[in-house]
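input
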Amino acid sequence: MLIDFAAPSLRRTLYRTPPLAWAALLAGSLLCAGAVYMGYHTLAQMRAADARIARAQRALLPAARVRTDVAKAAIPEAQAKAVNGAVMQLNLPWRALQQSVAESTPKSIGLLALEPDPRKQVLKITAEAKTADDMIAYIEQLKEQEFFAAAVLARHEVMESAPNRPLRFQVEVQWVAP
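output
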């Protein structure tokens, strides 16, 4: 039985602290000191890296300020027209053209070709129909489309060599710029 009548004090607490607690306190202190050292070391490395970056940026700044004069290259007119033509082809409203033609084409009409001319905003449609009435009705349906401004029959002919003698025709449709 342990009887202790001593008043609580720091000396009494230190005396009664078990050795395992002292070892844990020492280990914790060492870990904290190591963490402080590593944090300081990392901070020093970051400051050194920031200084190197700042030096590199200052070294590049005069080079960035130097303007190099680029001589303007003369582009031949034929090449400029070819490039502009290619750009016009790429900027064609294909989806709207296809959708408008598909919406106005009945099953009695067989589409053979669609040839756009982006300079004139004209779409040449080559098709076949069984009768002249089907052809005229198709042209009227094309005229009613919002995307098309006008539809004109360019040519037509009866295909004598083909069975059922279909009527082949070409319609020029003017589209409206979107």
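quick obs: The beta strands are 109-117, 122-129, 148-158, 167-175.
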